[in-house]
Amino acid sequence: MPPTDPTPAAPIVLSAAQARVLGALVEKEVTTPEYYPLSLNALINACNQRSNREPVMDLDEEDVRLALRLLEEKRLAGRARGAEGRVTKYEHWLGEVFNFTRAETALVCVLLLRGPQTPGELRGRTERLHRFDEISEVLAALQKLMEREPPLAAVLPRQPGTKESRFAHLLSGPVESVAAGFAAEPASARREAGDDAGHEERIAQLEATVAELRQEVAALRQKIDNLFGN
User: Fold this and answer.
1) What pLDDT band is residue 31 in, cutting at 50, 70 and 90?
2) Sequence-separated (6 or more) residues with CB below 8 Å from residue 166
3) What residue segments make up the domains of the chain, in order of their start?
4) Alpha carbons 119 and 163: distance in angstroms, whole number
5) What burial letters (b/e) apply to 78-105, b meaning 16+ CB within 10 Å?
6) Residues 46 and 60 sit within 8 Å (Cβ to Cβ)
7) CA-CA distance, 227 to 230, in Å (whole number)?
């Protein structure tokens, strides 16, 4: 049965397969409404698309059926209500659980399908789902996702050589921002951590990354406050 209570029954932590299935259902509802809700075969094809998916996955029927069963337990997706015909079809209930705006739905969908992205990437990749006229509108919607309780999005440390921070959804659990920044460092830098001097330098680098991240979040919030006159 579809959910009747707008509050999730338990904390949501999606596996990679569940995130892909949910994201595919959300996407196809908007981009191909004539084929939505989706049959199992259509859903498998949507999950395994070679375009607009990062990473590309090869889920089989068993993978998708299991993901659907677990999503139904979380009241996020399941068999379509009122669907007619012999073929079972599936739909998502993301809006009923979170009461998202169209902007928030578009961002969550693309983050589920393509992982962490910059605001600029999100603006371009959500074009078919929802049009953001200005990058400030993307930032405002991301801010709303981050301010939910519990938060549904987070900003990651800026990668070396890049100008924009990336944002990630939190429906698959918390993102370890400092750990993510550490993983992005060259292997040579990680090997240097074996001696005391290298270890101290790494700590200083991580602290600087955290400080920079906090400043960037504060700047984003100030920009949004100024935009809406709060």
Assistant:
1) very high
2) 116, 117, 118, 155, 156, 158, 159
3) 16-98, 104-228
4) 11
5) bebeeeeeeeebbbbbbeebbebeebbb
6) no
7) 8
Query: Could you read off the pLDDT of 136-166 as tens digits, one per residue?
Result: 999 999 999 999 999 999 999 888 888 899 9
Packing angle of the helix pair 196-228, 135-146 (nearest 10 deg): 110
Residue type, 8: P
Q: Which class would CATH give 104-228?
A: mainly alpha
CATH of domain 16-98: 1.10.10.10
Strands 153-155 and 167-169: antiparallel
CA angle 12, 18, 24 (to 5 degrees): 115
Peptide bond before 151: cis, by omega within 30 degrees of 0?
A: no
**Intra-chain end-to-end CA distance of the chain, in Å:** 42
DSSP H helical ranges for 60-185: 61-73, 94-98, 102-114, 119-125, 135-146, 177-183
The two three-digit tokens of residue 209, written as one number: 């990354």
* Fold agreement between 16-98 and 104-228: yes
